[in-house]
């Protein structure tokens, strides 16, 4: 796509144009739509399968699970919410931002997206903090204690905070009829002030705050695991750094692009027209890439865990196999006690977040 001359006015300083509104860059909009459609398709299919398995396996032990596993369940539920909205975004991108599903779904799908935008990061930060406290201070009270009202109050507080932050944006979402109907964020007045305020709220609450907790706790966890005598290889050390790296890789490009666009709103002469064209061209791409946390989180925090894989196998076997005719009770108790001891030993040395749920 060729960006044409948008504005013929110039600001001169000593006879020299301060900023020229002329775009010369050519960007392939059709290629971008094809790539985005394929990315959304992969996100929807793989993310739906992974998070459904995570919720299915972990839901049965939600009442007795540790705070780490409790956060994993909530994080997967949050990811499932946004995954169900992906077909709408997929078709919107394919039809070049045309929205065909009415005003109600315009507001609802965007609200669900922004709720996940915050809640997934909040629960991930609390899960990492809970993991750190469980490993270093096992005798201290947990953030999400088992069988305690505080767990549900804190959980409800996280969801309500995510809803409140999402409503700050969603109140300005509406269906606008221009050449074609589109779902846009357009406040009636003070657009610049609103956009800058929301951008900084997103940067602080969704990225900088959770990232500082996640990175700090993972560094401390790696330091504690490195001194554990039961650790036989360096996998347990570098895995916790992968947790931090994946979070930053998913969200940093998104917030970087938004931050640069915010600077452009504050000072329209800061960037050239070509730079602004590239930023807006890449905006949908980095938004889509940020949603890859819906695929990465189940792998990192569940499928890499031995305890989760064992639970998945046992759950599948229990669904497809016939119940035994008779098993002595003392034999069952002995096996259960032996398994529990093994799982507790595994939890003490493993850096997998899901393992601590045992």
Automatic annotation (TrEMBL):
Membrane-spanning ranges: 34-56, 68-90, 110-129, 150-168, 194-225, 237-261, 281-304
Molecular functions (GO terms): G protein-coupled receptor activity
State the Gene3D superfamilies in the record. Rhodopsin 7-helix transmembrane proteins
What is one term from the GO cellular component aspect held by the record? plasma membrane
Q: How does it sit in the membrane?
A: Multi-pass membrane protein
Keyword terms of this UniProt record: Cell membrane, G-protein coupled receptor, Membrane, Receptor, Transducer, Transmembrane, Transmembrane helix
Q: What is its main location?
A: membrane
| InterPro entries with a match to the protein in the record | GPCR_Rhodpsn, GPCR_Rhodpsn_7TM, GPER1-like
| Subcellular location as annotated | Cell membrane
- Domain G-protein coupled receptors family 1 profile per the UniProt entry, residue ranges: 50-301
Q: Does the keyword Transmembrane apply?
A: yes
What is the similarity comment for this entry?
A: Belongs to the G-protein coupled receptor 1 family.
PANTHER family documented for this protein: G-PROTEIN COUPLED RECEPTOR 182, G-PROTEIN COUPLED RECEPTOR 182 AND ESTROGEN RECEPTOR 1
Name the record gives this protein: G-protein coupled receptor 182-like
Origin species, per record, is Carassius auratus (Goldfish)
Its gene is LOC113041603
């Amino acid at each position: 796509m060729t960006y044409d001359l948008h504005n013929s006015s110039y600001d001169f300083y000593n006879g020299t144009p301060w900023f020229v509104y002329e775009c010369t860059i050519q960007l392939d909009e059709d290629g971008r739509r094809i790539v985005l459609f394929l990315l959304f398709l992969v996100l929807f299919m793989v993310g739906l399968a992974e998070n459904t398995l995570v919720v299915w396996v972990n839901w049965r032990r939600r009442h007795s699970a540790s705070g780490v596993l409790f956060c994993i369940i909530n994080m997967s539920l949050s990811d499932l919410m946004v995954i169900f909205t992906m077909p709408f975004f997929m078709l919107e991108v394919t039809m070049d931002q045309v929205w065909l599903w009415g005003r109600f779904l315009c507001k609802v799908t965007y609200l669900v997206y922004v709720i996940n935008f915050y809640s997934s990061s909040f629960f991930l930060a609390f899960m990492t903090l809970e993991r750190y406290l469980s490993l270093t201070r096992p005798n201290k009270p947990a953030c999400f204690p088992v069988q305690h009202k505080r767990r549900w109050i804190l959980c409800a507080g996280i969801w309500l905070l995510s809803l409140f932050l999402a409503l700050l944006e969603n109140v300005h979402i509406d269906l606008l009829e221009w050449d074609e109907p589109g779902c846009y964020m357009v406040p009636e007045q003070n657009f610049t002030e609103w956009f800058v305020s929301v951008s900084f709220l997103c940067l602080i609450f969704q990225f900088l705050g959770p990232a500082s907790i996640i990175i700090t706790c993972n560094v401390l966890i790696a330091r504690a695991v490195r001194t554990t005598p039961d650790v036989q290889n360096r996998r347990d050390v570098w895995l916790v750094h992968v947790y931090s790296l994946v979070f930053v890789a998913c969200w940093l490009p998104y917030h970087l692009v938004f931050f640069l666009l915010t600077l452009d709103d504050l000072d329209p002469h800061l960037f050239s027209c070509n730079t602004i064209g590239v930023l807006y061209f890449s905006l949908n791409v980095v938004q889509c890439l940020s949603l890859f946390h819906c695929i990465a989180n189940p792998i990192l925090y569940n499928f890499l865990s031995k305890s989760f894989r064992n639970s998945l196998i046992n759950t599948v076997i229990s669904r497809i196999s016939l119940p035994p005719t008779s098993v002595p009770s003392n034999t069952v108790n002995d096996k259960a006690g032996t398994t529990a001891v093994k799982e507790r030993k595994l939890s003490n040395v493993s850096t997998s977040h899901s393992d601590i749920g045992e």
